[in-house]
Amino acid sequence: MNKSTGIPFLDLVTLHADLEDELCGVLKQTVRTAGFIGGLMVEGFEAEFATFCDAQCCVGVGSGTDALRFALVAAGVEPGAIVVTVPNTFIATTEAITQAGGIPYFVDVDERTYNMDPEKLREFLETECARDAISKRTFHKASGASVAAVVPVHLYGQMADMDSIMELAEHYHLEVIEDACQAHGAQYFSKIEQRWRSAGSIGKAAAFSFYPGKNLGACGEAGAITTNDAELAKRVRMLRDHGQSRKYFHDIEGYNGRLDSIQAGFLAVKLRHLAEWNTQRTAHAGRYNELLAEYADSIAVPYEPASSRAVYHLYVVRVAERDAVQRRLGAAGIGTAIHYPVPLHLQKAYQRLGYERGDFPIAEAVADRILSLPMFPSLTDEQQRRVVDELAAAASQVALGDFAMAVEPR
Ligand SMILES: *Cc1c(COP(=O)(O)O)cnc(C)c1O
C-alpha cells in the first residue's frame, strides 16, 4: 500500500496540528500552576459544555464509562434491578449497568436507524412486566426483579426516538439515562414539545465520552454527565470524588473518577471548534449519500429521519459480504471499521445472561452487514470520491446480494 494514497479511517493528527499552540498553552499553564485536579479549568469546561448541550448542569468525570456508571447510581438504580438497553452498542454501556449493580436487559433495534425500537421496549414492558399499584414500580414478572431504567444509545451520532421512549418511561416510572457518548451536539425534533432538543438534555441524565476519537475528544481519557437535575449532579460530584461532601468527610462510598484539569483545558479549547467540526461531518455524510446514490442496489446509506439532526460520529453503510468488502478496501489502502461486529448478547462476557442467537434478529442482521467508512472533519472531497469508487468496485465484485435486511419491511 502506498502510504501517500492511503485514506485513514480517522485522522486525528491533522485536527490537533491546527490546535498545537493553544493545546500547549493549556499544558504550560497547568504545569506552571500545578493545578492538576479540579479548579477553574474543570469548572469552566463544565459550564461551557452544559451550555453546548442545552442542559442545566454538567459534571466532568474520568471517562464515558464513569459517566454512565455514576449516572445510573445517582439515578437510583439499586442492586438487582433491570436496566434496559440495546445489544448493538459498545460494551461500556452494559459494563456500567452491571457495575452500578443492575442487570442488563436488551430490546432489539429499529432496522433503519439501528437505534432502540420503542415498540420493542413497549412490548417488553407490556407483556413481560407489571406495575405494582402501591409502589408504582415496574417489575419483571418472570424474575420478580424491579425494572429501574432505560439506556437509549444515540448510536453513530444519531439520537434515538426519545419522544416514544420518554413517554413509556414516564408511564412505567423508569429513569432514562441517555448514552450520548457518540452524539455531542446531535439534535432530535420532539413532536410533543414542538422543538429541537439536544442530546444530553432530555433524559434524567446523559453520559458523554471524550475518548480521543469521539466528535469532541480529549488528549487522553475523559467524560461528562449532563442533567437538568441539580440534586443528581450533586450526587455525581460526590461519586466521582470518593463520596466526599468535603475533604475527608465521606457521606457515601464513591469512586476515583474525576476529570483531569489538563483534559478539561484541552476540551475547552476543542469545544470552540465542535460546532464547525460537526457541520463538516454532516456535509461529508451528505456528500457520501450523493456519491453512493447510484449504487443503491448494493450499498445502503445511513437513514436519517426528518426528526433527526445527526452529527455523524460514524458514517455506516450496509453491504453484502461485508468482510470481503472490507478486505478489498483495506488492500486498496482505505481504512474502515465495524461498530460493532458481535452484538453484546452474543459476547462471551454475557453468556451468563442466557441469550441465544436469534433473540435480537435485527441487531444480529445489522452486525453482519455494517461497515464504517472514513469520517473525520478534514476528510476531503477527493478522498471521499476514492472511498466511494473503491467501495462500489468491491461491493459489485461480491456475490450479488443480501445486503438488505433479512426481515420484512414494516
Ligand atoms: C465511547 C463509548 C462509551 C465509553 O466511553 P469511554 O470514554 O471510552 O469510557 C460508551 N458508550 C458508547 C456508545 C461509546 O461509543
Instruction: Quote the distance from N terminus to C terminus.
Output: 44 Å
Look at the structure and give the mean pLDDT: 95
CATH fold naming of the largest domain: Aspartate Aminotransferase, domain 2
Give the number of helices. Answer: 12
Number of DSSP strand runs = 17
Structural class: alpha+beta
Number of separate domains: 2
Taken in chain order, the helices and strands follow as HHHEHEHEHEEEHEEEEEHEEHEEEHHEH
Q: What's the CATH first level of the largest domain?
A: Alpha Beta
Can you describe this structure in just a few lines?
With 410 residues, this protein is of the alpha+beta class. The chain has twelve helices and 17 strands. α3 runs parallel beside α9 (261-292) and α9 packs across α12.
What are the defining features of this structure?
three-stranded antiparallel beta sheet; Aspartate Aminotransferase, domain 1; alpha+beta; 410 residues; binds pyridoxal-5'-phosphate; disordered C terminus; nine-stranded mixed beta sheet
